[in-house]
Amino acid sequence: MIPRPTSDVCPCGGLPRGSALGECCLPLLEGTRTADTAEALMRSRFTAFVLHDADYLFRTWHPRTRPTDTQPDPEVEWTSLDILDTVDGGAGDSTGIVEFAAHYRVGGQPGTMRERSSFVTRAGRWFYVDGEHESAG
Questions:
Q1: Residue 137: its pLDDT value, please?
Q2: What is the mean pLDDT of the chain?
Q3: Owning domain of residue 101
Q4: Are 36 and 91 in contact, with CB atoms under 8 Å apart?
Q5: Domain count along the chain
Q6: Closest Cα partner for 71 from 56, 81, 86?
Q7: Rounded CA separation 98/41 (Å)
Q8: DSSP 8-state assignment for residue 77
Q9: Tens digit of pLDDT for each residue in 46-99?
Q10: Residues 114, 35, 95, 18: what is their CA dihedral angle, to the nearest 10 degrees?
């Protein structure tokens, strides 16, 4: 995992907006707290991609759909995240959907990946199941 000062604004943009990494996603990545919503899990997974934390991606991917290799592509620099829509995924829900646009750079060229992700709870924890995505330059 790439170290980053915990006082920096969280790579996911912060929940609430502008929250520091140490107060937003880092406790989830370290395992001292679990995501209480599908959106919080989505945000923490984006942060894991930014920080190249393959272990967290593995742990939060549903075992039924998880690939054997969850290592983020080292050529991709994830730069920002926009949450576009959420359906369910709150406290008391068993499923949720989060649609987002994740912005990145590869070789200095900007791009955007847009995905509509599905999440489920299992043993009281949120897991990423899968997503339908499209990439746009």
A1: 52
A2: 93
A3: 21-136
A4: yes
A5: 1
A6: 56
A7: 10
A8: E
A9: 999 999 999 999 999 999 999 999 999 999 999 999 999 999 999 899 999 999
A10: -40
